[in-house]
Amino acid sequence: MTDPRPLTEVEAIKAESRYLRGPIHDDLQSDAPNVSAASEQLMKFHGIYSQDNRDVRRERTLAKEPLDYSFMIRVVIPGGRLTSEQWLALDGVSDAIADGSLRLTTRQAIQFHGVRKGGLRPLAAELHQRLMTSFGACGDVVRNVVSCPLHDHAESEALRALPERLALAFRPNTKAWWEVFVEGELAATGENQTERSFYGETYLPRKFKIGVASANENCIDVYAQDVGIIPAVHPELGQGYQLVVGGGLGRSYANPDTFARLAEPLTFVLDDELETVIEAVVATYRDLGDRTDRKRARMKYVVADLGLAVFRDHVEQRLGRELRAPITIERLGEADDHLGWSEQHDGTWILGVAVRAGRLRDNNVSSPKAALRSIAERYPVSFTLTALQDVLITGIQAEDRAAIDELLSAHGVVGVDSLSPLDRSALACPALPTCSQALTESERRLPEMVNLLDAELTTVGLSGAPLQLRMTGCPNGCARPAVAEVGIVGRTKSTYDIYLGGGPNGDRLARLHEEKVKFEDIPSVLNPLLAQWGEERDGDERFGEFLARKGLA
Ligand code: SRM
Ligand code: SF4
Fold first, then answer.
1. Positive or negative torsion for Cα 262, 267, 269, 273
2. For residue 87, is pLDDT > 70?
3. Quick one: which ligand is closest to 252's CA?
4. Atom of ligand 2 nearest to the CA of 477
5. CA-to-CA distance for 182 and 186, rounded, in angstroms?
6. Which phi and psi (to 5°) does residue 147 adopt?
7. Which atom of ligand 2 is nearest to the CA of 438?
8. 138 pocket-lining for ligand 2 (C-beta < 6 Å)
9. In 10 A of CB 351, how many CB atoms?
10. What is the whole-number distance in angstroms between the Cα of residue 362 and the centre of ligand 1?
11. Number of structural domains, the chain?
12. Residue at 181 is within a domain
């Protein structure tokens, strides 16, 4: 039976867009600092968000002045891997066209903030020249494919290639980005174009996320993905992948029927079956996802509403054969943040550098961005972004290690061993002043929260104990607080909801502990449980494991 509810406005905009072109070309030509509502929606597919500086929104509105419009651009970086030339180009763009910072994201991408409309085409041209794109970084398509950065074994070359392979397999056919943003002049008509069948003319109901885990640990939060890929060995068939489906962490206060959900095992696939099986999953979502309510349009709701068994039937219909049963796999280990020095099988070294809340920006105290630029210019290295908002310098020759350490230290970059475990693991989303959805602060107040909680750990005699902190300015959950030991989620302008009991294995949802807590009261709300953990924990038992064992969260 067809759904009698009307489709969302975004569905109409997509349908009329001539494969994601719409009025963007004309809007870019106009003198206005912003773009039309239709272009705003379509530009998301091109990795571009229309924003305004929320710090000055109120005064501008009161003064009846136009808002301070700018754009956020997200660059697709499959598996987070960049050559040093690409790193230098992105660094250059951040100074020349954006606000001087590079924002490393929780999905191994890079965002530019504060780009004016006139900078969009030059920025796209620079990306195109360096074999990068922002196309598909946002919008109702398969987003940047994340992957554990360290598949460091000769036999895992196939794994290392997977993010790029999947990025190519699921990138839409339309040439709209190239025509509108790079070529610019072309009258973009979209005639005689077809789109990949698993997208169709209106693409997916909503965003779709794919992540490739390590077989050993969970640094990408594989159970938070629409499709999570876990390398595994089948008892009869050998090496392949366990596919888990239906994860997602966003919630909406306005819609109580929204929730965070962990992905469940769907099937075991061999390497040469991967694309066709994921295509069938994507096509199932294309057909069954809710196109009438964008708050409930993610694939996790299809899996939750139908149940995994019925969802599997639908995937099998589209695949044209039965799916193999999933296998039993070991619990994935705690997320490895890959920070500090580690040697690789080929004798080169990796140095993981912690970046607080993913924001690389130079100031009077330290200049990490300049340090990384110098390293890219002077040494034959590459870069890999992690899903924990940090950056790894890869391919370092043993003889360059000391000089690289010195260079970082001269720029005031603190070595990872000097950070508290809490600081090291802490994530925060951008929130104010750029994010249109933010209810309150996140990234800007993360340093304060780290200091407050580190002090609270000291008060209860747990100085330096590992504690995983993730903070967001709203329940969309961009820093994945829903699976953290301590998740602090913006609720109102001045309060946060506290979620507790997830953990670094990423396989347990945190539960709501207390609602509407003022920022400065968060440590005292946590104090009794932290103290109890200190007294009653089993050896090195983590806070999240302790809370789950005791039924406290
Ligand atoms: Fe996110 C929307 C930032 C990872 C769930 N996210 C947004 C927007 C675009 C706000 C908006 O819609 O106007 C934010 C841009 C703010 C800004 O000023 O930059 C934004 N999300 C981010 C990033 C940059 C956070 C970060 O600290 O790094 C991450 C970019 C990832 C990337 O490179 O692609 C980011 N977002 C996530 C994740 C984590 C993940 O994917 O591993 C989630 C939770 C997982 C999930 O998808 O369920 C997430 N973002 C959302 C949602 C809720 C979606 C939903 O299911 O309802 C929204 C709201 C939306 O899409 O309408 C959202
Ligand atoms: Fe914005 Fe909310 Fe995502 Fe933070 S969690 S970036 S406030 S959408």
1. negative
2. yes
3. 1
4. 5
5. 10
6. -155, 145
7. 7
8. no
9. 23
10. 25
11. 4
12. no
The pLDDT tens digits of the residues spanning 217-259 come to 999 999 999 999 999 999 999 999 999 999 999 999 999 999 9
And the tokens for 339?
A: 């920070």
Residue 79 placed within a domain = yes
Q: Residue 254's closest CA among 224, 289, 293, 288? A: 293
For residues 23 and 43, membership in a common domain is answered with yes
End residue of a domain, out of 291, 310, 336: 336
Distance of CA 34 from the midpoint of ligand 2 (Å) = 21
- The CATH code of the domain that includes 479 is 3.30.413.10
Interval between CA 437 and ligand 1 midpoint (Å): 10
Adjacent-strand bridge partners of 394 = 382
List the beta strands (DSSP E) in 30-138.
48-52, 69-75, 81-83, 102-104, 110-115
Domain that holds residue 167: 141-171+204-336
Mean confidence (pLDDT) of the chain: 96
CA-to-CA separations, 27 to 5, 33, 36, 486, in angstroms, rounded: 31, 10, 7, 43
Distance (Å) from CA 356 to ligand 2 centroid? 16
Q: Which atom of ligand 2 is nearest to the CA of 479?
A: 5
pLDDT digit string, tens, across residues 462-499: 999 999 999 999 999 999 999 999 999 999 999 999 99
Closest CA to 73 of 157, 136, 17, 21: 136
Can you tell me whether residue 267 is helix, strand or coil?
strand
Q: Which residues contact 65 (CB under 8 A, 6 or more apart)?
A: none
Six token digits for residue 320? 């044209």
Q: Beta partners for 243? A: 229, 267
* Overall average pLDDT of the 506-515 stretch: 98
Residues 395 and 455 grouped into a single domain = no
Q: Which of 419, 439, 471 is the last residue of a domain?
A: 419
Owner of token pair 């640094």: 219
H or E segment to which residue 12 belongs: helix 9-15
Q: What is the largest CA-CA distance in the chain?
A: 71
3, two tokens:
């759904």
| 388 occurs within a structural domain | yes
Quote the pTM value. Answer: 0.97
Residue 510 identity: A
- Candidates 104, 472, 488: which one to mutate for ligand 2, based on the most atoms within 8 Å of Cβ? 472
